[in-house]
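Handout, section B. The chain below has 423 residues.
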Amino acid sequence: MEAYIFDWLNLLLRWLHVITAIAWIGSSFYFVWLDNSLVKPTDPELQEKGVGGELWAVHGGGFYNPQKYLLAPKAVPEHLHWFYWESYSTWLSGFALFSLLYLFNANVFLVDKNVFDMSGFMAGGTAIAFLVFNWLIYDAICSSIGDRPNGERLANILVGLQVVVSVWAACHLFSGRAAFLISGASLATIMSANVLVWIIPGQRKMVAAMRAGQAPDPIHGKRGKQRSVHNTYFTLPVLFAMLSNHYSMTYAAPHNWVVLLMIMAAGALIRQFFVLRHKGVNNWWYPGVAVALLLAVAIGLSPMMRGKPVPAALHHAAEAKPVAGDGAETEPAPAGTGGVSFAQVQQVIQARCIQCHAEKSTLMPVPGKGVLLDSREHIAQHAQQIYQQAYVAKSMPLGNMTHITDEERAVIGKWFEAGAATN
């Protein structure tokens, strides 16, 4: 019953997160497009009102005429729409999902002792610290340098370097899958904090000044625009990081931090192309470089580059061998192993996993993720990954090609939770 409830929470939170993210990204992309598509009005009346740009558009059978003022209208309208709940809801639902899937199972999903040996508690605390400190560093860069005359370019360079260092650190502290997600979550935290700390408060100060009969300070608009521009370039890198957990070939790569940075850079270049296109500039250099980066990653991760030919299609799963629960005889389980012997675990792996995780696998051109499970030593080395993928996430075997049963998954779960002994 607990597993059933957990799955429903996972589903509903993920659904909510996607819905709110669509709303936030949609409004963000629209306003960036709108800002870059405005033209200076020719109507003297609009110029007198202080309108700096306008746009005529048709959509859904109606005509629209959005206008942007150089600073602010002479009077604040009674009904003023604010865009912020999309951002807050996206971050809150994302953090709730991250907590449910990763923080509550930190020792399984965040920790990879082959990367960095730490406890689950330490990993969870480090992950949260990553979100907080990335925002603090970013904010310090923008606040101290971005406000200076001609300081925006230097601030952008430093923010880019921060992203590089942050991704490298994440991939050297956490498991690959978690590192990619945390890197994306750090950028998403910066994006939402920009809205919470700078964009909305700045707009509120401008409105308050106008209602008090004072001229609003233009610095608020400048800061809000700077943070909004950063947000739009972060969007596609964040989307990839959120989707990456479905593609282990990326986060399980030997130099996974390079892979993530190259794909993030491709996303930012693609976004730049569309931003320029909104301004009427068709610079194909940006998508060209983005495609080159993606091709470089794809070729670098290809099985062909690892010295193994790729077959035209996967072979059918081999006939399963008898395992515990199928009537096979097994040696008694030693005390303190949860009632499961290593021989039982090995039989499950031989029947359901070895087809993909052997030097000469029958289902894959290369061992899945480069993980070998064809010896006692290899099984012990990858015990955590076996437990995470086969028992907790139930994502392995891929598509359950070898027809592993829930009882066999339970054998692996009991063995790992009892200490993963191999004697």
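Note. Residues 2-37 form the longest helix (36 residues). Compare this with the example in section A.
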